[in-house]
Amino acid sequence: EAQVTQNPRYLITVTGKKLTVTCSQNMNHEYMSWYRQDPGLGLRQIYYSMNVEVTDKGDVPEGYKVSRKEKRNFPLILESPSPNQTSLYFCASSLSPPGERVNTEAFFGQGTRLTVV
Amino acid sequence: RKEVEQDPGPFNVPEGATVAFNCTYSNSASQSFFWYRQDCRKEPKLLMSVYSSGNEDGRFTAQLNRASQYISLLIRDSKLSDSATYLCVVNPDQTGANNLFFGTGTRLTVIP
Questions:
Q1: pLDDT value at residue A102
Q2: Which of A31, A66, A71, B30 has the fewest CB atoms in 10 Å of its CB?
Q3: Nearest to B98 among A97, A102, A110 (CB)
Q4: How many Å apart are CA A35 and CA B43, to the nearest integer?
Q5: Separation CA A60–CA A82 (nearest Å)
Q6: CB A40: neighbour CB atoms within 10 A?
Q7: How distant is the alpha carbon of residue B37 from its chain centre?
Q8: Average pLDDT in the B52-67 region?
Q9: Do A111 and B42 touch (CB under 8 A)?
Q10: How far, in Å, CA of A63 to CA of A87, rounded?
Q11: Which residue among A90, A103, A109 places its CB closest to the CB of B49?
């Protein structure tokens, strides 16, 4: 089954304790991205990756890091989480970047609900 | 100004009703338009792309008005299972853009 898998689904952590949210896709997609979703703000892009070893900042990158060592995996790293990073996080992948082909569908993982206390 | 704006609702409609959502976008060069559906606490899933000529998929009709920079979604004969949040999504520019811009969503509740 074609899917994007995120782990963990739920996480409560304390300020400053480094954490990683994993994301893996089995569709051989080139493009992957991370979003956060907050009430009243919609989904906002954190980082994206065009392909292996190619990553770039989205609209809200502060406090986050990513890596793309393999095509299928795109982990999100919070080196020193803070309460303002409490949010619902989604990883997404698509065959190509949104700007490359018209109407490219994005596939989303099931989400990670992160609470930083 | 937000890239994509939509009425957050909520829209509460009876089963069988017809309901329409609108969404406006700010970048006139935008090339790709979508409606995604998001169930409570779940991930967004593509409902349909929106084409210039308008398109229909069963009870769902999407239309694009480039002159006024808005897209719409019409749902006919609403079902209880249509209850969800509908996200308007726009790719702002065909060349070089690597982001999708999401509206905040319009919440629909279909009542028995």
A1: 67
A2: A71
A3: A97
A4: 11
A5: 14
A6: 7
A7: 8
A8: 93
A9: yes
A10: 13
A11: A103
Whether the Cβ atoms of residue A46 and residue A76 lie closer than 8 Å to each other: yes
CA distance A63 to A75: 14
Whether B96 has a pLDDT exceeding 80, the answer reads no
- Sign for the CA dihedral angle at A6, B4, A63, A67 comes to positive
- Among left, alpha and beta (phi > 0; psi -120 to 50; other), residue A50 is alpha
Q: Do B98 and A42 touch (CB under 8 A)?
A: no
CB-count burial class (<10 Å; 0-12, 13-18, 19+) for B74: middle
pLDDT tens digits, one per residue of A41-86: 989 999 999 999 999 999 999 999 999 999 999 999 999 999 999 9
Task: Note the pLDDT tens digit of each residue in A27-36.
Answer: 999 999 999 9
Structure tokens at A71: 């095509």
Q: Do A105 and B46 touch (CB under 8 A)?
A: yes
| C-alpha closest to that of B104 among A46, A39, A7, A109 | A39
**Which residue matches tokens 């080196």?**
A79
Half-sphere exposure of A115 (CA within 13 A, CB side): 4
Cβ proximity of A49 and A61 under 8 Å:
no
Instruction: For residue A108, give both structure tokens.
Output: 């989303």
Secondary structure of residue B81 in the 3-state scheme: helix
